[in-house]
Amino acid sequence: MEKSAQQQIMSDPYQWLEAIEDEKVLNWVREQNKVTEQALTQTPHFKQLKADLLTIYNSKERIPFISKLGTFYYNFWQDDEHPQGVWRRTSLEEYRKANPKWETVLDLDALSKAEQVTWVWGGSDCLPPDYKRCLIDLSKGGADATTTREFDLEQKRFVDNGFIRPEAKGLLAWKDADTVYVASDFGANSLTESGYPRVVREWKRGTPMTEASLVYEGSSKDLGVGAYRNHQPDFERDIVYHNLSFYEDDVYIREADGKLVKLDAPKDSHKYIQRSWLLLQLRSAYTYQQQSYSVGSLIATPLADFMAGKAHFQVLFTPTTHSSLENITFTRDYVILTVLEDVKNHLRAFKAENTQWQEQDFGVAPNLGTVSLEAVDPDYSNDYFMTVTDYLTPSSLYQGAVGKAPEKLKQTPSFFETNDLAISQHFATSKDGTRVPYFQIAPKNLVLNATHPTLLYGYGGFEVSLTPVYDATVGKAWLNQGGIYVVANIRGGGEYGPAWHQAAVKEKRYKAYEDFAAIAQDLIARKVTNPKKLGIIGASNGGLLMGNMLIHYPELFGAIVSEVPLLDMQRYPLLLAGASWLDEYGNPETDWSQLHAYSPYHHVKAEQKYPPLFLKTSTRDDRVHPAHARKMFAKMKDQGHAVWYYENIEGGHEGAANKEQAALMEALSYEFLYQHLMSQP
C-alpha cells in the first residue's frame, strides 16, 4: 500500500546525501561516477564524440562576441590554450578582420594557477564614461556565489586596496569612482531564505565593507534586494530594487539625500526607466485612471508624469493569440521590440518624439530563425549588434542601426552536415485541447515508418522561450548520427507571453507535463518514431520535467536524461536557492498535496518498470542542490532500476567550469542516448 502524502513528508532515508561536500558523500559520488565512466566512456564512439565536441568548443573560428567599453571592444574567450579563459580587447576596425589582433586584459588561467583556485568568469561592471575601473565577478568552479574585485583597465591589473567583496551571492555596482552599492553576506540575518542579500548598503572607498551605510533592508522571506546607478547622460538616477519574489518587485528612485521614492507600478510588471521615460511590460492586467491594459502589453509614459500621478500611457505592443513580446532593446533614441509570432521572430522599432513614440521602419533584417539584439553603446548611439540563427544555420553577427541595412561582421562555421536536413514546425493537441507547437529537425525526405531514433527536448518554466538556435553539439552528437531532434514549446515557457507561462504554474504545473506528453504522442502517432526509439532530455526545471515523464508516462520513452534537476518537491525550498521558486511551484508547507503530485522522488516504486534514466549534476551547483539527483539515484538504484549517475565536482548550474568538462558532460549524455536508442545491444 502506498504511503500517504503526510507519511512521506515525514521520512527521507537518503537525506544524508544533502551534505554537499561531506567527505563521506563525495566518496559516494566518486564511486557512482566510476561506474558510469566504466559504462559510458570506454567505447570508441564516446572517445570520438568527446574529441569532436572539444574540437567544436575550442574552435578559433567561433564568433568572439563583443561589447563596447569606451573606444575598445571586449570579449571573453576560452579555447584549448585558455581553458579558464582570457578577457581581451581590440578595435572595431581590427575586429572586422578574419584574424583580429587581441590585447589580453586579464588571463584567468594565470590567475587560477597563481591562486590555486579554478576561477570562472562571472562578468564585469565598468564605470562610464571613461571605463578606467571595473568590478569583476569571479566564482569558484562556476558557482552562483561570486567574489568581486576592482580592476584597473589602464594598468590591466587588480587595484591594490581596491573594492573587494568576499564570496557570496550578491553584487557590487558603481555609484561613482569612490562609491559602490554593495548587496552581500554581512553576517547573521543578512541573507534571505533563498540565500540572496536582503540588505543593500552604500560603501565608500577606504572604509571597511562592514561599515557601509544602510540603503535598504528587506525581509528574510523576500527573494533579495539591490541597488545601482543608471549612468545615462543627463538622466543619472540611483535605483533601489526589492525583489519580493521571483515575479514581483518594488522599485525606488533614491534621491540625493537618500530618500527613497517608490515607483507605484504593478509589482509583477517589468519596469524600464529609459532617459525621461517609464515603460511597463505587464504580466497581469493593469488599470490606471480607468484605462485598462491587457496581460503581455508594453505601455509607455513620461516618467515625471507618472511620478506626479498624471500619466497618459501609450500602448507600444499588445499580444495576440499567436504573438508575444520576447525582448526589448534600448538604443539612445529607439526602443526595439523582438516579437514572437508562433515562436518566430519579428522586429519593430519606435522613436520618442516629444511626448509620443512613433513606429519607425526597422530596415532590412535577415528573415531567418531567431534574431537577438544588443545595443552597442545605448547611451551615445543607435547602433546595435544583431545575432541571427536557426537550428541548421550557423549564427551570424551583424552591426546595424534602425533604418539601415546591417553589416555582417562574423559567422560561425558549419560544425555539422546540414544539406539533407530540414526544419519543420508542428502542433500537438494537449489533453485540454490546447495547441502546443514544436520544432522538428529531420531528414528532408523523412520516411514515416516509426523507426527513427528521436530526441525530444523541453523546459516549460519561468517564462523561458525555446526559440531556434544553432547547436553544434546536437548537430554533431545526434543529428549527424542519424537521429531526429525535436524542441517542445510547452506551457510554462514564454513562447506566447505571460499567460502561456501562468497556465502551468503551481497547481497547474501538470499542464506542462500533459503538453510534453502530447508532443511525444504526436511524434508516435505521426510515425516519426516509437517509444523504444524516443529519448528525452532536459535540465534544471527541465530536469523536473524529465522526472515527471519518468513517473507519469514511462511507457512513452526509451531513455531519459535529467540534468541538474529538481526532483524532491518536498524539501526543495530548504535546499540552496529553492525558496526563491515558491511562486513557480508552490509551498510544500501549505500546498503539499499539489506538489506531491509532481514530486518524482516521492513516486518512484520498485514494482514499476521505467525507461533507463541518466541523472547528471554538479557539486558546485549552488542554485539547484545536487541532492535532488543524488537522492533520486540512490532510491532508484536500491529499488533495482536501470539508472546511471554522474556528478561533476565543479561546474555550477551550467554543469562545467571549462570546455574540457563541457565536452565530457555532453558526451556522457549523448553516449547514453546512443547506447539505448541507436546502437544494438
Give the helices and strands, then pairings.
Layout: H1 5-9, H2 23-40, H3 44-57, E1 67-69, E2 72-77, E3 86-90, H4 92-95, E4 103-107, H5 108-115, E5 119-126, E6 133-140, E7 146-152, E8 157-158, E9 164-168, E10 171-176, E11 179-183, E12 199-204, E13 213-217, E14 224-230, E15 237-243, E16 249-254, E17 260-262, E18 270-274, E19 277-281, E20 286-288, E21 291-293, E22 298-302, H6 303-307, E23 314-317, E24 323-330, E25 334-341, E26 344-353, E27 356-360, E28 370-375, E29 383-389, E30 396-401, E31 407-411, E32 421-429, E33 435-443, E34 454-457, H7 472-477, E35 484-488, H8 498-502, H9 510-525, E36 534-539, H10 541-552, E37 559-563, H11 582-585, H12 588-597, E38 613-618, H13 627-639, E39 643-648, H14 659-678
Parallel strand pairs: 34-35, 34-36, 36-37, 37-38, 38-39
Antiparallel strand pairs: 1-2, 2-3, 3-4, 5-6, 6-7, 7-8, 7-9, 10-11, 11-12, 12-13, 14-15, 15-16, 16-17, 18-19, 19-22, 20-21, 22-23, 24-25, 25-26, 26-27, 28-29, 29-30, 30-31, 32-33, 33-35
Helix pairs in contact: 3-14
